[in-house]
Structures are given as C-alpha cells and as structure tokens.
Write a structure and sequence with these properties.
This protein is an all-beta fold. It has a domain of 94 residues. Helix content is 3%, strand content 30%. The protein is built from one helix and eight strands. One of its GO terms (cellular component) is extracellular region. Belongs to the multicopper oxidase family.
C-alpha cells in the first residue's frame, strides 16, 4: 500500500487529516502546533503510555473514521496493510484499551477550538486532554454569534 504523505500549506483550507498523536512537532512563535493538511506519524514518534485501565477518548466537534486498532507497539510495516479504507466505523469516542492504539482519520472542516479528552475526569490532571484549533479555510467561515446569545 502506498501511503499518502502529501504536505500542504495549512492555510490552503481544510482537508482530510490523518492523525496519530506523536512527539515530533513544529511549534510556531505563539506556541501552537501547525500541521499540514495531512499529518502522518510513524511508530518512532508515538508516545508510550503505560496505564492500568482503558481510556474512553472523545473528540468534540467531529466524527472520525477508525482505520485501525491494535495492541502493543504500532508498527507501520505490520499494521498499515490492515487499515480499513473501505468501510471504517464512524465514531466520536473510542475506548483505547490498556496497551492498545488506534489510527483515526477525520475531515478538519469545522472551524473552532475543539477539545480531545479522556472521559474519565480523574485522568484530566494527568494530561489526557488537549485542544486543537481548526482555522478558517478559503471556503469555510465562522458565523458571527447569534444576536440573542447571552452576554456575561
């Protein structure tokens, strides 16, 4: 299987984003990670988390396709041929098992700042939460707040 490793300017608009969270990042002066329209990480850049329980991971603002899941260390040579591009499950929450991993793909077409977190609240102080920002693309606009939105 040939992998799509196309890198494009993130300001070119929302496109399919393939995410495996990793250590290798490029950070702007504002401290934000900018990624290409397509992000692809290998096993060497995956974080290693040792845990004694499952983590129900939820993404706000998006549904995603589950391309693969497994146990042990992710290995591109072994695991990529198992990716399901034909009829992947569509979810907004996955339960990452102890010693397990998932590969997801989603369309980053909903501008805003979105939370990705473990649904076990006691895990939030451990750092099992992050926010990512989807900026406006050439054909996407963030509408103004409604006129009747309460003001504090």
């Amino acid at each position: 299987m040939k992998r799509d490793q196309t890198l494009t300017d993130p300001s070119s608009g929302p496109d399919t984003v393939r995410v495996i969270f990793g250590r290798e990042t490029s950070v702007t002066e504002e401290g934000l990670q900018r990624c290409s329209s397509r992000l692809d990480r290998e096993r060497e850049s995956l974080p290693y988390v040792i845990a004694a329980e499952n983590h129900p991971i939820h993404i706000h603002g998006f549904n995603f396709h589950v391309l693969a899941q497994g146990f042990g260390n992710y290995n591109a040579t072994r695991d990529e041929p198992k990716f399901n591009f034909v009829n992947p499950q569509i979810r907004n929450t996955i339960s990452v098992p102890v010693g397990g991993w998932y590969v997801i793909r989603f369309q980053a077409n909903n501008p805003g700042v979105w939370l990705v977190h473990c649904h076990l609240e006691t895990h939030l102080p451990w750092g099992l939460a992050m926010a990512f920002e989807v900026e406006n693309g050439p054909s996407t606009r963030v509408p103004p707040p409604p006129a009747d939105l309460p003001k504090f």
